[in-house]
Amino acid sequence: SWARTSDNMPPAPKTVQHHPSSLNNLLLQSLLDRTRARTFLSFLINDLSSVTKPVASRLIAELAGGDKRFEPDMHPSEIDSAQINRVVQLLKACDAVRNPSGSCLSGAGEYNLRLGVQRQYNPEMLFTTTSKAGAHDGHPFILECCLAYGGGCRPGINVTRFANRIPLLFEPGSDVATKVCNKSVDWKQYHIDPVASKVEVFISLVSTKVPFKGTGKEYIP
Description:
- There is one protein chain.
- By secondary structure, this protein is of the alpha+beta class.
- Helix 2 (40-46) crosses helix 3 (53-66).
- The two termini are 35 Å apart.
- Helix content is 29%, strand content 19%.
């Protein structure tokens, strides 16, 4: 059995609303059917994330330019299927909407990642970093990365991948993380021999929707 390395629990994810760019017709219809908002303006502000009142007002004005039935005070139940399609298209194309918040994500954390790698490999050097929250198709994501050098690390550039804290064990050569580490990084400029030096790279993607290649969920293209 393995002894516990850390008692530091990652922060619990928070509940957030759907981001406008993640919507499709069926999802928007479902949100409209169960909303408690009494106006379309209120629905955009309160039932979707990252939509402010000025942005919502601008969106409705643009929708009304092509369909006079769109009004800020219209009830969400009045929106028909043709209008839903128009709303989805406009929301996906709107560049005034902020990226989704990363508060709904819960990664391992740099502290825990560092402890785990230190215990397993006892490297000479160890570096960790976490990206700011980004967005892919309206779904937030963060990247947690760790690089270990020397000590008990294996020779060469060895990439270990995680998705939502679950290790990805298959098709490593097809994964974007492996391709970047092996083909895009010029290791020699850091005085690292990609064949002889002992380097371990750990990359953890945390997202509400991991863009796997196929249903096997083996790698990220």
